[in-house]
Structure formats: structure tokens, C-alpha cells
């Protein structure tokens, strides 16, 4: 039986923010959940909401932080933000997005590292 191990993490978050030219909720949910699983993020919970006029928001609570998607169908774009305390998983996730057939507009040069000080 596995035992719990205390692990102290540095206060450091790896943020990956970008826009994709896909607004179909089913496509987005399926694709990004697949990416999370491929790089071994631990999905603790998932919730989503379809707004009455237009728009969709999806949120994955991860053991390593979260992934959120917000669609703007009138503009033809969706905003995606991954925040994670695991640099390797963030980097692997970015590679999957880069290698996908999605049209991606990155916000910045890549993964932004955020620290409290």
C-alpha cells in the first residue's frame, strides 16, 4: 500500500497562455483533456459551462494546478491557460499544442515562470 510522502514545493508556477482558432466545445474538451492525460497531469475534477447566448468555459482542476479554456465564438478564438507547478509537464503540454494542427497564437515566448518575489 503506498504511503503519503510530504513534499514541499517551491512557490513557482509555470504559466502557458495562448489562443487557438477552435471554438467547438466538444473538440476543445476532448483535445485538451487528451493532452493533459498524455503528459501525466493528474485530473482531480472537471467542470464546464455553456453560456446562454454564446461562449463556453471549461476548467480542469489538476493536482499540479489548473487548465482553463474560454471561447469567444464571435471572434473565432478560444483562450487557453495552463498553470502548473510542474515544469516538465508544462513543457510537454506545450510541445503537444505546438505539434497539433491547431492555429495557435502564443501569448509571449512560451512558458512564463511566476514567483511571489
TrEMBL record:
Pfam families: AdoMet_dc (PF02675). The keyword Metal-binding does not apply. Its cofactor is pyruvate. The keyword Lyase applies. InterPro entries: AdoMetDC_fam_prok, S-AdoMet_deCO2ase_core. Keywords: Autocatalytic cleavage, Decarboxylase, Lyase, Polyamine biosynthesis, Pyruvate, Schiff base, Spermidine biosynthesis, Zymogen. This is S-adenosylmethionine decarboxylase.
Amino acid at each position: 500500500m503506498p504511503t503519503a510522502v510530504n513534499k514541499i514545493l517551491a512557490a513557482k508556477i509555470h504559466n502557458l497562455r495562448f489562443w487557438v482558432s477552435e471554438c467547438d466545445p466538444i473538440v476543445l474538451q476532448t483535445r485538451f483533456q487528451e493532452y493533459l492525460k498524455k503528459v501525466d497531469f493528474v485530473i482531480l475534477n472537471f467542470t464546464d459551462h455553456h453560456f446562454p447566448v454564446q461562449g463556453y468555459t471549461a476548467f480542469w482542476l489538476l493536482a499540479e494546478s489548473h487548465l482553463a479554456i474560454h471561447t469567444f465564438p464571435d471572434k473565432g478564438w478560444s483562450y487557453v491557460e495552463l498553470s502548473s507547478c510542474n515544469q516538465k509537464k508544462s513543457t510537454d503540454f506545450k510541445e503537444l499544442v505546438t505539434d497539433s494542427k491547431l492555429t495557435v497564437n502564443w501569448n509571449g515566448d512560451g512558458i512564463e515562470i511566476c514567483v511571489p518575489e
